[in-house]
Design brief:
Low-confidence stretches: 3-34
Number of helices: 5
Distance between the termini: 64 Å
Largest sheet: 2 strands, antiparallel
Mean pLDDT: 80
Structural class: mainly alpha
Order of helices and strands: HEEHHHH
Helix content: 55-70%
């Protein structure tokens, strides 16, 4: 009985430590990664899901699949929202906090747009899907202009 209690306490302790960002890179106390995924990987997951959503959102016969893809995209967006973009490392200290806040707001807005599309699809209003998909695409483009690291040219 005591042994089982010890195992339970150990598991609970590991869970608490892991949920607080154990093993993640830290920037100002914020984890930049979660175990197994980087911000880049989360963004790629969002993009992959979005491409499929964009292709099928207008087809009511694919609503179940589209809703699954939206759930996947939302999961990636939510994970990315709590991460720190690489651009924060190059910002002066006085600008860094504002940059991080802008990133978080941008990601929250992306999640809001994804939820709006989910509502349209769940209600079977596929005729409105194109407008919602376009809004998400525009938001992604603007976010990438602001936060995606610029590629170095040799």
């Amino acid at each position: 009985m005591i042994r089982n209690g010890f195992v339970l306490l150990a598991v609970m302790g590991i869970t608490v430590v892991a949920s607080n960002g154990w093993g993640a890179e830290e920037h100002g106390g914020r984890p930049t990664t979660r175990p197994g995924n980087s911000l880049h990987e989360e963004m790629e997951g969002m993009g992959k899901a979005f491409k499929q959503i964009k292709a099928q959102a207008g087809d009511a016969g694919k609503n179940a699949s589209t809703l699954e893809l939206l759930a996947e995209m939302e999961k990636h967006t939510l994970a990315a929202k709590g991460m720190t973009p690489r651009g924060a490392a190059t910002r002066p200290a006085e600008e860094k906090e504002k940059y991080l806040a802008e990133f978080r707001v941008d990601m929250a807005n992306a999640l809001r747009l994804e939820l709006e599309l989910e509502e349209v699809i769940a209600d079977g209003e596929n005729g409105k899907a194109a407008e919602a998909v376009q809004a998400i695409g525009n938001a992604m483009g603007e976010g990438h202009k602001e936060f995606k690291p610029k590629k170095k040219r040799d």
